[in-house]
Write a structure and sequence with these properties.
The chain has eleven helices and eight strands. By secondary structure, the chain is mainly alpha-helical. It has two domains: about 220 residues, Leucine-rich repeat, LRR (right-handed beta-alpha superhelix), CATH 3.80.10; about 200 residues, no CATH class. β7 and β8 form a beta hairpin. α4 packs across α5, α6 packs across α11 and α9 packs antiparallel against α11. The longest helix has about 80 residues. The chain is flat, with a radius of gyration of 37 Å.
């Protein structure tokens, strides 16, 4: 017997094949039009490709509106080629040769998934399918009940089909599933009744409580991680990431090889601690200023877009009024044309109609140029306000980083004085306290000590300057990108509106040309 359905050869999912299949499922009254003009793949909502001897899922990238896809009863070995089907709600891949669940990451709207009668041994790679309500994986190779617990993350799942898998042969299979999936209403095409749910709860009560406790802890950890990421994103958007603490201070001393040795000098640890506290205080000042400025900028941008939308809406309303009045009169002129038989009268009437069309275009153009002028004014106001805000933030940034450099300079001078005093004591063999071998080795030569301190000082200033430069560069780049993006968008929309006016005028003139 041939392994292909009906003894036919495998089908290649090329454009011609997909066009043919799409036409087959087109309503009868549209079929003739579709066959002549072709079908737009991005308008297809449902596609049935069962019993086609398909080996590879391919060429579906343009079916971006597809909601239901049936690929059951084929020869498919791998789930692939579905990345662009982001609107898919139903996918049937039953009766194929699939060995692994994969390639479903983009299908976040999927509600129904049928993978029955394949060769799948593990339920996996479905994390993004949060809206899943129906899952059928009957007649596969799933052996472990614990693997089925993977499905607990799908809070909307209420229909699960597992029969025909080795796992369904376990003695307490039904009670296990009912216990761990309390929201399930249907298992293997049978209603999960209250008695089964109660028996399951009694049997697995303590295990379930422990699992829920662990799941709650895991969820809390996930929430904390997401909150931390959200905070970091906010700080990054405000250009003050890692300024809410000692990050900058620690980065300054990260590559300072002599710091650990210098800390053995009695006065240095306290000096270093004071330096850190003062640096952190300045960084927190800048951090809080940055968040406040970010909020002000966000408010300004939102106000701009609100004003932009209102300006465009007002213009569109005026254009609609002009168009409605014109179309009413134009329709009357067309009806008058249809009553005329004299060619000269027809030509004169068409000339008058063209004059009205030209006048309509002038009215639309006047509105368009008025809109462009108004939008340019509010863009200019936005740019002025944002520039003022950026300037204020830059001034505060420069002021605070200058204070950071002063702190570093003060710390350097104090440590330098301590080092010179220590060198003098060593030279006079007048040390009152014990000194470690590392410190003694460092202080054997004045030039070595001074060079080490100067190198550290220079490195500290570089770290401060680099952070200041990074903040300023990104802040100004954001301002430029914001204004340019808005201007480019407005230019594109202006050209589209301009083109629409001319296309509509051409359409009207083509209507009139039919009377000549």
């Amino acid at each position: 017997m041939s392994e292909f359905y009906g003894g036919s050869e495998p089908i290649v999912m090329d454009e011609e094949f997909l066009q043919k299949v799409a036409v087959e499922h087109t309503p009868q009254n549209l079929a003739g039009i579709i066959k002549r003009e072709g079908i737009h793949f991005d308008e297809v909502l449902e596609l049935s490709l069962e019993y086609r001897n398909i080996l590879i899922i391919d060429n579906l990238r343009e079916f971006t509106s597809l909601e239901k896809l049936y690929l059951n009863n084929n020869l498919i070995e791998k789930i692939e080629g579905l990345d662009r089907l982001i609107n898919l709600t139903c996918l049937n891949l039953s009766f194929n040769k699939i060995q692994k669940i994969e390639g479903l990451e983009s299908l976040q709207k999927l509600e129904v998934l049928n993978l029955a009668n394949n060769r799948i041994a593990i339920i996996e790679n479905m994390d993004k399918l949060e809206k899943l309500t129906h899952f059928c994986i009957a007649n596969n190779l799933i052996e472990q009940l614990d693997n089925v617990l993977y499905m607990r993350k799908f809070k909307n799942l209420f229909t699960l089909t597992l029969f025909g898998n080795p796992v369904s042969e376990a003695d307490d299979y039904k009670l296990f599933i009912a216990a761990y999936f309390p929201n399930l209403t249907c298992l293997d095409y049978k209603i999960v009744n209250e008695k089964t749910k109660n028996d399951a709860y009694i049997k697995y009560q303590y295990v379930l409580e422990e699992m829920r406790r662990k799941e709650k802890q895991e969820q809390q950890a996930i929430n904390a991680d997401e909150s931390q990421k959200a905070d970091l994103q906010l700080h990054t958007d405000a250009f003050v990431e890692f300024l809410n603490g000692s990050y900058l201070f620690e980065s300054m001393f990260k590559d300072d090889p002599e710091l650990e040795t210098l800390q053995h000098l009695p006065e240095v640890p306290e000096l270093l601690q004071t330096f850190e506290n003062e640096m952190v205080e300045l960084c927190m000042q800048l951090f809080n200023i940055g968040l406040a400025e970010h909020k002000l900028r966000e408010t300004e941008v939102k106000t701009f877009f609100s004003g932009e939308a209102k300006t465009v809406a007002d213009c569109q309303q005026k254009a609609s009024q002009i168009l409605a009045k014109f179309e009413q009169q134009h329709q009357q002129r067309i009806e008058e044309l249809e009553q005329l038989s004299d060619s000269n009268a027809i030509k004169e009437k068409i000339r008058c109609c063209n004059d009205e069309i030209n006048q309509l275009c002038k009215s639309f153009m006047s509105l368009e140029f008025l809109l462009v002028s108004q939008l340019e004014d509010i863009i200019t106001m936005l740019e002025r306000n944002i520039s003022h805000m950026v300037g204020n933030f830059s001034d505060n940034t420069q002021r605070i980083f200058a204070l950071c450099r002063d702190l570093e300079q003060n710390y350097f001078q104090n440590v330098r004085n301590i080092a010179l005093a220590t060198l003098e004591k060593i030279a006079k063999d007048n040390l009152e306290e014990d000194m470690s071998d590392d410190v003694r080795m460092l202080f054997t030569d004045k030039d070595t000590v001074m060079n080490a301190l100067t190198a550290g000082h220079d490195n500290h200033l570089i770290k401060i300057n680099d952070r200041e430069t990074l903040l300023g560069t990104r802040l100004n780049a954001w301002k430029v990108a914001l204004i340019k993006g808005i201007q480019d968008k407005q230019l594109k929309q202006h050209r589209m509106r301009f083109s629409d006016i001319h296309r509509y005028a051409d359409y009207l003139r083509e209507q009139l040309a039919k009377f000549l």
